[in-house]
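Internal tracking record. Fields below are filled automatically when a chain is submitted to the structure queue. Please do not edit lines marked as system-generated. If the sequence contains nonstandard residues, flag them in the REMARKS field before resubmitting.
Queue: standard
Priority: normal
Entity type: single polypeptide chain
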Amino acid sequence: MFSIIVAADINNGIGKNGKLPWNIPDDLRIFRTITTNSTVIMGRKTWESLPVKPLKNRHNIVISNTLDLLDGAVVCKDLEKALQISDSSNDIFIIGGSKLYNEGMSHYKCRDIIITRIYKDFECDTFINKFPLDFIHIYSSDIKSIDDLKYVNQIWTKVT
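SYSTEM-GENERATED OUTPUT FOLLOWS
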């Protein structure tokens, strides 16, 4: 089983030119807290966008058809292979990008979607799909704000 962890604006935008279009330190802190000592699976573009590689205190797996070897990460050709080699004693998270998020949401082993929902429309060129109907909302934090941004942390879980 694995979970998805993502931040998205009100239109499911998640990025612009390979970067996050917002700066929410609390979201990054939550991401770090949740994913530390776990396995993180990401696409090549997400790997390339990381300011520090690999993500510290995590087992990094990158899905790519063009990369072969990376310092500090295992490379796999697809999500199935990444899940096979993941350390089953750790939590597993898909951390981006959009293609992998969208594939993961419809995968039978996806358990939860952990999302920071930002209540603003950003100019984005990368989006996630709407959540499948077999996911239900089970948790929302209080509304938080930084500068002019309002956001909540939510958990959606798959109903079986």
